Amino acid sequence: MCIALLLKLCKVLVIVPGENYKHSLAYTLYTYTWIVLSLASVLFYIFGQLTNPNFKTMIFTVRILDGVTMALITSSTLCIASKCRLATNLLQHLQLTSIKENNRKIMVGFVLVHIVFIATNLVGDASLSMSIGLLPGARIVKYYILRDMQWYVQTIAVYLVIIVAHKFKIMFEELNVCLQSYSTESDTSERDEKVQLILKLRKRYNHLADLVQEFNDVFGLTIFFAVLFTMAMAVFSIHRAIVFSLFVSDDPGRLWIILASILWTIVVTLQALLLAASCSSMEKEARRTEKICYSLVNEAPAMLKEISKEVVSELCILAQLVGCRKPSVSAAGFFKVNYEMMGFIAATVTSDTIITLQCLIESIKM
Fold first, then answer.
1. Under the phi-then-psi rule, with left for phi > 0, alpha for psi from -120 to 50, and beta for the rest, what region is 150?
2. What are the backbone dihedrals phi and psi of residue 336, each rounded to the nearest 5 degrees, phi first?
3. pTM above 0.90, yes or no
């Protein structure tokens, strides 16, 4: 039920249109309308907010970083919309609706995503209103409405990626169970049955590797821009908190803006961490397939009395295939999505924060 609800939401947000809407003229027009709105949001943001007199006193670096986050979230939305039909083909192959093992966890995660997202944006909008007054704040918040909508689309797309990575993990677990059962039943099966089983497992692994590659082709750029947005949003939030701490003393909403900046940093970091954890667990399960294959090859000489050379040859081919094709989630080929990615994000944000502090301290001295 939760997966079906998620897929219906993805149709509305132009993430996965579904087979019924894939060739629909109305849905095509709806997709192009969403793309135009995404592009218009950037123009609305630039020619609306930055010319507003309330923002003329804002430090230039804060405005630049705010604009970078806007550009990245728009790029992510455009990538999602441009790949939506390919995403439909991928999800049909995966059969996501068959996931029943952790359906309750998926539902809880789906609800928490919405609660955290709504709370984060409410705090952010409230901080603007507290900073410059209720009515002026309402006028400024309107410039962020389209960005918040795009952020919501990206959040749901990232959650879908996490679910798909979990599905891949389940498929690799089933493959590993078959390999392990082959190891325990190798002395009772007939030779032809053993060969056929290895051939099936080889085709199955090759099919899984193809699906992971197709997944990277569809969602790779989306993940790439989502990770860049995470870094930019974290740098922007920390930078803004530092600026308001050091340079702004008479703003009534100063504390609110600092708290909102901290909350935004925590939220985008948690999102990236969940994405890295899900993709890393899938990659770990795929690596376990390689270990099981080589373990079977190493045990083959001890079983030569029971199995033929043909079976050993098929085992070696399977082990070589697993060694050559190592499925992993990639951000458009730029980097793998795992815990190493979190180290890259942490290093980037930390270095930018240190540079920001040094520049601001020097400017205060001057």
1. alpha
2. -80, 145
3. no
